[in-house]
C-alpha cells in the first residue's frame, strides 16, 4: 500500500481537476499504475483496480456510515453533517443490515427485471413522444430535451408524482447529492440541507395524501407499509427522495455520456444504427466507457483485508469505479469504445448488497432509446460546446447541444 506524496498528488488530480469531455481516465491510469492501493494521511484507502474495487464492494465487513459526506476527505462541521441529508441518510443507500434489508425489501419487486419488462411499452411511448418533439427543432439540447425528461417521467409515473412538480424537484436533487462528491465542502452541505427540506416538504405532502387516497404507485406503497416493513416518518420521506433521485440521476448521465461518446466515435454510432440488436450490449459498453457514477465509498465495520491491506473498523474505503472499468487487467483496449465488446458487467452500478436497485430500469431506458434516436436522426451531430457538471462522483453533462438535421 502506498502513502507517498506523489500518490496523494495523483489522487488530488483525479478528484479535483475539471476533466471535461476527456474525463478523469488519464489521471486514473497514472494512479492505478503507480499507486493502485493508496492510503491518505487521514487513513482513507483509495482503490482503482477492478479486482480490488469489486472485492471491497462485495465484502460484508464493509458497510455504510458517514463516508457519505465527502468520503471523509474534507472537514465539514459535525453539526452541519447532522443537519444535512439526515432524512436521505436514513435510506437503504446508507444503512447496513438488518435495516438495509428491511428498507430494500419493501420495493425490490418493483425493480426486478420481470417488472421492468412490464414497463417497456410505456417507456417506448415516452421515448417516441420526446423524439417527436425533437423532430420539430433543428437544434436541441439533449440534456434538457431528452436525457432529463425521459427518466424523470418514468420514475415520476412509478412514484405517482404529479407532472407539474417533477421538474422543480429534479432541480433540487442536484443540490441534494452534491455532498456525495469526494471533495464536498461546507457550502455544498448547506445547499443540500435546504434542498432536502424542500424535497421533504414536497414529497411529505404527497405521502400524506396517498395515505388517504392510495393508488397503484410507489408512494402509496411507502405510505401504507405496516408490520415489520413499517417506515418511520424520516425513513418514509427519505426513501421517497432516494427513489426519485436515483430514478433519474444515473439514467440522465448514462444518456448524456453515452450520446457524447457515440458522437465522438461516429463509426460506433453508425454500427448501432445499422444493428439495433446490439443495443443491450452497447449499453454495457457505454456504462463501462464513461460511467455515470465514478466513485463509491464504504466504511470498515469489522477487521478485514482488501488488496493485501489490513483494515480496521472506522476506516473509509473509496472505490474509483471509473478507474476499475478501464483496468487493462480486466478488459483489453480499455480506452477504446467498442459496442461489440463482450465483457462482464461494469461496476458502474456498484456491486454487493448496495448494487443499484434501478439498474435494470436504467439499462432498459438506454437500450430502447439509443437505436431509436440514431435511426430517427441519421444526421445527428454535436453543435456548440458540451458543458460538463462539476465534480467527479456524478459524471454527467449540463448541456449537450446537437443538430437534428
Describe the protein in words.
Helix content is 51%, strand content 9%. The chain is of the alpha+beta class. It has one domain: Cytochrome p450 (Orthogonal Bundle), CATH 1.10.630.10. Helix 9 packs across helix 10 and helix 15 crosses helix 17. The longest helix has 32 residues. The radius of gyration is 21 Å and the shape is globular. Its cofactor is heme. It comes from Williamsia limnetica. It holds the Pfam family p450. One of its GO terms (molecular function) is oxidoreductase activity, acting on paired donors, with incorporation or reduction of molecular oxygen.
Task: Provide the β-strand percentage band.
Answer: 5-15%
Q: Spans of 5+ residues with little confidence (pLDDT < 50)?
A: none
Note the run of SSEs as H and E: HHEEHEHHHHEHHHHHHHHEEEEHHEEEE
CATH superfamily membership, which one?
Cytochrome P450
* Ends distance: 53 Å
Number of strands: 12
Quickly give the structural class.
alpha+beta
CATH architecture: Orthogonal Bundle
* Count of alpha and pi helical runs: 17
- The neighbouring-strand order within the major sheet is 1-2-8-5-3
Main sheet makeup = 5 strands, mixed
CATH topology name, in short, is Cytochrome p450
- In helices, the fraction of residues equals 40-55%
Overall shape: it is globular
The count of domains is 1
pLDDT averaged residue by residue: 90
The gyration radius over C-alpha positions equals 21 Å
Keywords: Heme, Iron, Metal-binding, Monooxygenase, Oxidoreductase
Pfam family, one: p450
GO molecular function: heme binding; iron ion binding; monooxygenase activity; oxidoreductase activity, acting on paired donors, with incorporation or reduction of molecular oxygen
InterPro entries: Cyt_P450, Cyt_P450_B, Cyt_P450_CS, Cyt_P450_sf
